[in-house]
Design goal:
The protein has helices spanning 4-16, 63-72, 85-96, 104-114, 128-139, 143-150, 154-168, 173-190; strands at residues 33-37, 53-58, 77-80, 101-102. The protein has 192 residues and is of the alpha/beta class. It is elongated and about 60 Å long.
């Protein structure tokens, strides 16, 4: 990490979860996960551990630098500097299980920069019916309940849901609901 204080804080938190942590190189073994921040991602240290999975702690608010890290570095997950300790723990579990993790705040920033999300947290490219489906998902409705409400088949709901996931970049229903509820929460906090 670019900051020794940040490295020690993250290390202490991870040790409280039962992980073995190292903050200085050379490491005594190849770690399962390397947590690195956006200021040090371009250094060649990560390449020394080809089997390790990399979690990028996004400390740079500019999505261009985060996108550059995703494109040109070995990154398996991204977590925002605003994430809490529970999110960090979940991200580590997901990455260790071999899956990718993208924090919903990071995803929201990408959508804002890509012009897919308005400043008020609204997905810009969704059709009116897709917007109704998203609202239903955020309420916890099942595909069957959504189909009944909209007088369409469950298969059609699934087709709309695939399109919504593609447009928003969400990986599943929970991620979609989380991403959009946070966007709405940000709007309320700003008083807009």
């Amino acid at each position: 990490m670019g900051s020794a204080v940040l490295a020690d804080a993250v290390s202490g938190l991870l040790e409280s979860y039962g992980y073995e942590c190292y903050t200085k190189e050379p490491l005594p073994c190849e770690p399962d996960v390397i947590i690195i921040d956006s200021s040090t991602i371009d250094r060649k240290g990560v390449d020394s551990y080809p089997k390790s999975r990399v979690l990028l702690l996004e400390t740079d608010a500019r999505t261009k630098s985060t996108a550059r890290a995703i494109l040109f570095q070995k990154v398996h997950g991204i977590i925002s500097h605003t994430a809490d300790s529970a999110e960090l723990k979940k991200a580590l579990e997901v990455i260790i299980d071999g899956h990718a993790w993208i924090d919903s705040i990071v995803m929201k920033n990408f959508l804002l920069d890509a012009g897919r999300l308005s400043n008020k947290g609204q997905i810009l490219s969704l059709t009116p019916q897709e917007k109704v489906i998203v609202e239903s998902i955020c309420r916890g409705d099942t595909n069957k309940e959504i189909a009944q409400k909209l007088h369409i088949s469950s298969h059609t709901v699934k087709k709309h849901l695939r399109n919504i996931m593609t447009k928003t970049g969400a990986v599943n229903r929970t991620n979609l609901a989380s991403m959009l509820s946070r966007a709405s929460g940000d709007e309320d906090e700003d008083g807009e």
